[in-house]
Amino acid sequence: MANGPKPVDTVRWEFTSAGRPSLSVGGSADAVLRIASGSATDFGTPHQVRLDAPQQEQQVLERMAEQFSPFSQFRQSARQEEGANPTPPSDPSLPLTAESAREAGRILWDRYLPADAAASLEKSLKAAAGEKPVRLELVLRTNTVRDLPWELLCDAGGPIAIRPELQVVRTVPVAVPLPPMTVELPLRVFVVATNPKDEAVLVLPRELEAVVGDIQNDKRFAVVVCMEPTLEMVKAGMGREPHVVHYIGHSGVDQGRGNVILHDAGGRTLWLAPDAAAALLPATCRLVCLSTCVTQRNYQIEGLMRMAQAPAAEPLPTIVANQFPISWESARAFWSTFYRELLESDGSIPDAVEAGRSAVSQQSPKAGDWASFALVVRDGTGKPFRFASASQVHPAGMAPSRSPRQSKDLQAQYAAWLANEFATRVEQMGEAAPEELRTALVEERSRAEAIRRQAEGI
Amino acid sequence: MFEEFHLHLFNDLKGQWMAEILRPVGGAGATWPVNVVVTRQQLAWLRNGTQPDAAQLQDIGDKVWKSLLPNPLPQKFQNDLANLGGLPAGVRITVALTGVDAASAPANLCRVCDLPLETLYEAAHAHFGSNGRTPITRCLQVGFDVDPEKVAYPLRILLAVSAPSDLPSPGAPGQEEAAIRQALGSLIDLGGPIELTLLHQPTRISLMRELRKNRYHVLHFVGHGGFGIVDRDPNPQGHLLLIQEGTENSPNPVSDPTPASVLLNILRNSGVRLAVLTACSSAQASQDGPKYPPAAFTGVAQRLISATGGVSAVVAMQFDLANAAAVAFSKSFYGQLVEYPERPVDVIVAEARNELSVGAAWANTRTWVTPAVFSRCRGGRVFDFQPYFGTLSEAACKELAVVEEFIDILSKAIAWIDGQSAGSRLDLVAERARNEALLQAKLDRRGELLGETVGVRGGKASRGSRISGPLVLRTRLAGAVNNLVVKLQFEATKLTLLSAQPGKDLQGGQLVPSRAPGRGQERLVALNLRGGQSLPAGEYELAVLEWEVTGAAPGEMLTVIADPEPLVRNGQPQIVRGLNGLVFVTGANAIAAAPRPAAAVGNSATPTASPSTPPA
Q1: By the 8 A CB rule, do A225 and A233 touch?
Q2: 3-state SS string for B419-446
Q3: B111-132: pLDDT as tens digits
Q4: Are A189 and A244 in contact (CB under 8 A)?
């Protein structure tokens, strides 16, 4: 059925704080870029990266808006809309042109990356010789670099994220990769489409059409849509144990954290922070898609990426999210290609995102919308699923009873999650981490590995 | 860690004294006869208060060396002595006497059992007994068989002061007691880590009753001692002079020579681990004179250390000890015990001897030789002090922080499973049981570290079933605790408290529940704990609570919040921490499928409420 995921070579760019006391005290701040090829531990010489360091995090975004024309364009347009026209257009005009995307990508490439970074990427590409793609993993450990639109990166040859030989993914590293879950088709997709009364009202049928129009009638997918997503309704939907939760709607930033927006009992906004969102998701949900609305301006679109890039301590699955507005056509092109490729690649999200971006680029060659789709790998592999033929027919959307393999998969996933909990604590404590915690981490890690091997042996 | 030099003195088949080296290993195997060269005259100098000068003391010590040690010395011992400053702690010299002197021993020579081992001298190292790096310990068996007693503060010391009117007063009234109090300083203040109780004019009965009523770790006797015929026994024995029954409250209390064998009966099984006897001749092993052939265990210290159920270590005086010297010794001894809780008792005594040897009042006298240590304790440590509630040690604080991390992670891990569908929970039932057992162990450990706690023990139950668990008071400080009030809070829709019965440790007290049915609140009052008697440090089951799980779903973790009011101990209010109980609700299927964890029912404490947090 599936072609399977593409084999890849990996280049990792890890940006960390340079150890300055705080960005909030003003002055310039540096980040440190470490470059690794093939193995996460194989870092070379660290490079100092000069970044503009405004006093407030919000100012970082403002500065970006001034520096990058796409952001500037979008923000000016947004301001005009706020003042002049409270009623949103049903199909907002395209905010980001291909030309603007290229300009912003060049600034990122020339100004923020040392020559070694480009050289390492070039070297890996040559080594791969076009036979397999190179995956550029971006590990962004500071807010300043996390908020930059790295997907726009553009060298002399053009934007790198839409080249067939390159995959650009962001990674929130975990100590123990979560093993893939065996899924018997249909893939259960739970769509949460929000439209609270006290926010700019969306045209929901259009929104849904853009996201699931192509897969709704595909028997390989079981799509359930929640149109009145109160907390209770969402919880009830999670009881069906979806594999994918696809959110469509507004977002916001609260205390620096990204929030999605559900409905309260009165149909008004109910903000949901990353920890609360994580608590809602069942173990079967290994992919979350955060789609910005396309029939209305998003309340605060930064919230989607902030949630997607929440710290590893928030146990969210791998997330695909929009980082700036896109057209309806681009949304449609991306998601229809994405879901199809997800099955074709046997559950490889980077492959599916790569295909989706290409589709958007081809469908709207004059737009830069393809760069809005960012992938944040949070499970260590970006391959949360392994598809198997259904052993029996299940009622649409309902979770079937599990096979022994699936039961063991779940145990392996849990063991890996527990090991990652220990790893997160150890990492947070740094050198002060007590020996008992380190020992527990080693034990839980090897235990998780043993259970994963048992699962693979079934 | 000390290097060991363990010398064993024993009788061969002919009753002759022989010696062998048990440690270091490798020195064992060879035996040689013991030829005592210390004269009875020299012993008499020590015993009769004829103060030998420094040169004479060195000569005695040198003769002890020549009497006991082989020539050449074992290589390891030689090396250790040569490198004494480079060793981590030093060399512990232990002399085990398992034989008896023959009645036919030469009259002009000192008996082996009377050898003043503490004078041991060698020109290159001077006297060993006053050097903390070469402590000397006596024992009456081969090897050591008692581990240090784990003591949760306070260390409880009974100070028994006997001052009969028919004998010279052992110093000015209260002088030694005052010195001990001064040495202990603020540590004996109410709620401090040492509790000092004074028993004035102890009789045999009052001493025994006091030791039975309140468990003490240390008995310190201040008074007279001697060696002679007492209690109609024709064989001389070591004895302490307690007060004759009935005269203790009179203006003229009369002395009661209490033989070693009776003292053993008083102390046996009392819980006292260390006896400090600042009484003359309390370490003397035999009576002078040929008509009194020595017997085993007739000295006070020797008798007390000899029996199982007796004390683990005795510090006693082999000769007369001047009152002022006894005061100085006590001050040094307890000062070190408090300041260096890890220090072995023989090292403490060696350091105290050293203080006496340099003090102007006793320099160049045999005063410092007088204290002797008898021990059965491995490593020389009598006590292993546990963290003190009032000021948790740095190590305890660190461990507590780690335990809290584990509790947080494991609570989250269990909550994660509980947040899954029924099918997923079934797949993860073994994982849950494993983590539940780990959590219980960590909760128990937290309770141990925190010390002064009132905790509810929970366990596992399915909906509709009953579960019972105790309400436990754990104390780190001893004292009179009369009443304890605990408020329990729980979700009344999910859990019902069916009954609260008095626990096995309430002993004469009453349990008064104040029921508030359906409200999820219960106020339990434990009245008159232990009939008003002092409560030693320890763990006490005050009540047994029976619960019914009424409305909870399988997989839920219910919390019973224990909220104790401050308890009043010795008239002072003290904060007690509450350790909440956890009830893990299981489903019938889950129970059938789940392997029982090692600790199915356990404590207790508060897992911080964690949201159900599914992983990626």
Answers
A1: no
A2: CCCHHHHHHCHHHHHHHHHHHHHHHHHH
A3: 888 899 999 999 888 999 999 9
A4: yes
The reply to whether residue B611 touches residue A275, judged by beta carbons under 8 angstroms, is: yes
To the nearest whole angstrom, how far is the Cα of B575 from the nearest Cα of chain A?
30
List chain A residues with CB under 8 Å of B615: 178, 283, 315, 317, 413-414, 416-417, 420
What is the mean predicted confidence (pLDDT) over A422-439?
Answer: 90
Of B430, B411, B422, which is closest to residue B596 (Cα–Cα)? B430
Shortest alpha-carbon distance between residue A121 and chain B (Å) = 29
pLDDT digits (tens, 9 = 90+) for A212-248: 999 999 999 999 999 989 999 999 999 999 999 999 9
Say if B413 is an interface residue toward chain A (CB within 8 Å). yes
Q: Say how far apart CA B392 and CA B450 lie, in whole Å.
A: 8
* Whole-number pLDDT of residue B478: 61
Q: Do A278 and B402 touch (CB under 8 A)?
A: no
Pairwise CA distance, residues B546 & B469, whole Å: 7
Give every CB contact of residue B438 below 8 A, 6+ residues apart in sequence: B406, B410
**Cβ–Cβ contact B614 with A under 8 A:** yes
Cross-chain Cβ contact B421/A399 below 8 Å: yes
pLDDT score for B93: 93
Helix (H, G, I), strand (E, B) or coil at A264: coil
Q: Give the chain B residue whose CA is nearest to the CA of A402.
A: B423
Most B CBs within 10 A among A318, A408, A421, hence the mutation to make, goes to A421
Q: Which two tokens stand for residue A17?
A: 């704080």
Task: Supply φ then ψ for residue B178, to 5 degrees.
Answer: -65, -40
DSSP secondary structure letters along B376-403 = -BGGG-SEEEEPPSTT--HHHHHHHHHH
Q: Is the pTM above the cut of 0.80?
A: no
- B434 → chain A, closest CA residue: A415
Please give the Cα distance from A123 to B163 (Å, whole number). 95
Evaluate whether A283 touches A179 at the Cβ level (below 8 Å): no
**Omega within 30 of 0 (cis) for the link into A350:** no
DSSP A293-335: PSSS--S-THHHHHHHT--TTS---EEEEESS---HHHHHHHH
B420 contact A CB<8A: yes
pLDDT per position as a tens digit, B480-526 = 677 788 888 888 888 888 888 888 887 767 787 766 555 677 778 88
pLDDT at A232: 92
Counting every residue written for chain B, the total comes to 616
Token pair 């890690």: residue: A445
- A85 vs A109: which has the higher pLDDT: A109
- Determine how β-strand B136-139 pairs with β-strand B91-97: parallel
Among A411, A418, A458, most B C-beta atoms within 10 A, so best to mutate, is: A418
What is the tens place of the pLDDT at every residue in B16-29?
Answer: 899 988 878 665 45
Residue among A242, A162, A220, A217 nearest A387 (CA): A220
Q: Is B397 on the interface with A (CB under 8 A)?
A: no
| DSSP designation for B571 | T
* pLDDT (tens digit per residue) in B43-94: 888 887 667 788 888 999 999 999 998 888 888 888 888 888 888 889 999 9
- Is the CB of A315 less than 8 angstroms away from the CB of B614? yes
CA–CA gap between residue B487 and residue B253 (Å, rounded): 52
Chain A contact residues (CB < 8 Å to B): 174, 178, 239, 241, 275-276, 278-286, 314-318, 378-379, 384, 399, 401-402, 407, 410-411, 413-418, 420-422, 425, 434, 436-437, 440
Complex ipTM: 0.81
Write out chain A residues lying below 8 Å of B423, CB-based: 241, 399, 401-402
